[in-house]
Model the fold of this input.
Amino acid sequence: MPDYHALSVDDVQQNLGTGRSGLSTAEAEERLRRYGKNILREEARETRLQVFLRQFKSILIIILIVAAAVSFAVDEPLDAAAILIIVFLNAILGFTQEWQAGEAIAALKKLLVQRAVVIRDGERREIDAPGIVPGDLAVVEMGERVPADIYLIEATSLQVDEAPLTGESAPVDKAPGSLPPETPLAERSNMIFAGTTVVNGHGRGYVVATGMQTEFGLIAGLSQQVEDETTPLARQMDRLGRDLGLIALGIAAIAVVIGLLQQRELLEMFLVGVSLAVAVIPEGLPAVVTLTLALGVKNMMQRNCLIRHLPASETLGAVSVICTDKTGTLTRNEMTVVRVWTPEAEVEVTGAGYIPEGEFILDGAPIDPLADPGLRRFLQTVLICNHASLGHGEEGWRIFGTPTEGALVVAAAKAGLSREDLPEPVKEFSFNSTRKRMTVICPGREGGGYIACVKGAPEVLLERSTLMLRDGSAVPLTDDLRREVLLAIEGYASQGLRVLGAACRPLSTAADWTPEAVEDDLVFLGFAGIVDPPRPEAAEAISLCRSAGIDVIMITGDNPLTASAIASVLGLSSEGALTGADIESLSDDELAERLRTTNVLSRVTAEHKLRVVDLLSRDRKVIAMTGDGVNDAPALKKASIGIAMGIKGTDAARESSDMVLVDDNFASIVAGVEEGRREYDNIARFTRYLLSSNVGEIVAIVGGLLLGLPLILIPVQILWINLVTDGFTALALGLEPAERDVMQRRPRDPEEPILNRNAYLVILLLGAWLGLLTLHAFLGVYEVDLDRARTMAFTGLVIFEVYNVLNFRSFRFPLYRIGFFSNPALILAILGTLALQAVVVYVPPMQIFLGTAPLTLADWGLLAILGLPVLIGGEVYKVIRLRAGRASRAAG
Ligand code: ATP
Done:
């Protein structure tokens, strides 16, 4: 590959076989076949074999393999084989669940592809970045990630963060012009590189390398790091597993000692020890948790919440404050200029959406806006100082760029103005939320010199203006005039209109312009009132947040009055609203106090956002914060869940976020919270369910031991229950629909463990009950036939668990309230479990492996009746508790 940075534009074009109107679609397709996709080498995903082998890496499996070996050594080959088969089955089960979870996440990653703008067939197109080929003419804007290595042919105030490539943390200036061949990578200012981010300005240029051929691809390895993240819940589960492992060893050791004191045989005691170890550990739990989380991520995607980091899906359910942008999240971000104020006139603008058809109405009659010098100047200024453009595609008129700027382009187009009629800018000072303004400088029309065109928040411009254009000439802005203009601005804002002002300043000669020098002494031209209707579903979502104990804080860069007007339409109180200036003047403690009660923050910059998250998190809140700009990245990182906008978000924001809001819609965040809560509830449910089953097994085995009985359940039977039958029902419990009042409860305390004291009590009580029942089932027949007695205990436990799983469908509501059939997966799992048990009891090869003997119909009937009180007890308890709760609420 030639040293592109040393070539002239013509040479680059020739080398790459491209030109000013980009490649043709056909050529691009051909090149895509030739050069391959613009992607870095796929992250090496674990192979199926690796995932499968990993299933054997657990203490339990090792215990079992030893048990199998001992059984084999003492001439019990069938036992040994049975244990090994179960171990294998466990591995297959774990493997399938983990693989499926991996697939679900891989599918989501595919949805996260970067988009990029290129010129093809002479037209601007937005395509998936992997489709970019060498020779493409690419366009980059502030906030975007550079999609490939690009030789610049145009750049306006372009600055790039090259830290991922060179380690340089300060933004680097970029501009076209060839450089000496020996220029090192970090100084190639005429090139921008894949993997870096545009932090200022915009530019365009020819793609010289894609995929692994880019500088970023060449330092391979960088991109291959897969972050292996565990969620807090997964960590809790790991800890639980470890604790249970230790408990298992303890209980097994005690049991063996008791047995030996009872002078039982060593071999028998060995089996008892293994049975107990197997009984204590909920073998199926890790796989069920993994799969439930993965399915949850998929469900969240359906609700337009794309989870980038797995822990976010869990944290989302615990959110206690949502700090949300206004524009696009609470409002539709479909902007239309409806009014323009200039010092001489105030006109209404008709028309809808982005269709460039409409009239300018003055005092009830249409006028020619270009015949009015003040209006013409205003429209020209906002059009020059603008990155958006208007296009007509198959789906009608659309804009490229931000809706605020798009609305201004449309208004100018309604007046018959188009960009081509205006001079080309030579310099730009970009917009950001701190400056709240942007400026472009272009050659003046008349009499040479230059003119700075400024647009931004009108009160910011007014402060920097000393003159105002009236009757064709600039008049001084007296205090009275300023007050008049401010009143007019407030009048617009208090109607919920977004207000954008314009100003200009003639500059005599070219100089080394700086924003401070240029954006001062301005001539104020006027402002436009833009409607951005609130999203209809946002009001409902906000009221849902209120009932769910979640505070909503609107954080916007917009005018305080506009913000309050929109807030009131959405049902958010603007009492105690704060502005950026307030935030700056308050101390940390004062601000923290005010944040407890406020719902609206306006004229806020990215730095303020960071301070707000910081203070909120001191209150132990779980904060979800939305953001879209480059500057929002630190606040997004700091929040418990950083949420980037899928549509209007920059790549920079997206990369710092935990979650991408696909449709930018506030209501989707709330839907995600609901899904998160459901998921967490279900994990709590099946964890308790599985553990109560383990307690049941232990009570039965230890009870039998104390009564001097033979081993009640052999290891394979316990494994079968823990892995197969309980596994199915637990998984189905994970699919339980959300409780009806899931959004009427306060958020859970993120510090509270998934198993609190109450949970342990329930697990122990229900477990003990199940264990005693199992013991009872065994006691009835063991003197006649040991195998049948074990089969009774084994089948009994499976049946009791079926009753028990119904208990765990809800901690509070009895079955008649949640509906017996409302979780069809569970019904299927129960039927499947019972059918499997029948197979195990009656099919001869299974009888050999699991040591079972056939049962009579009466046996089944007896077990069914024996277990019924488990369910009835649970139901009666819930009804009493609900009544008591209602009575105490009525009394209170
Ligand atoms: P939100 O923070 O809710 O998304 P916002 O878009 O108003 O709202 P910012 O993007 O921080 O927030 O913009 C702050 C202010 O800067 C706006 O209210 C507007 O007056 C001005 N502004 C916004 N976009 C531009 C632009 N492209 N050029 C000049 N000024 C702008």
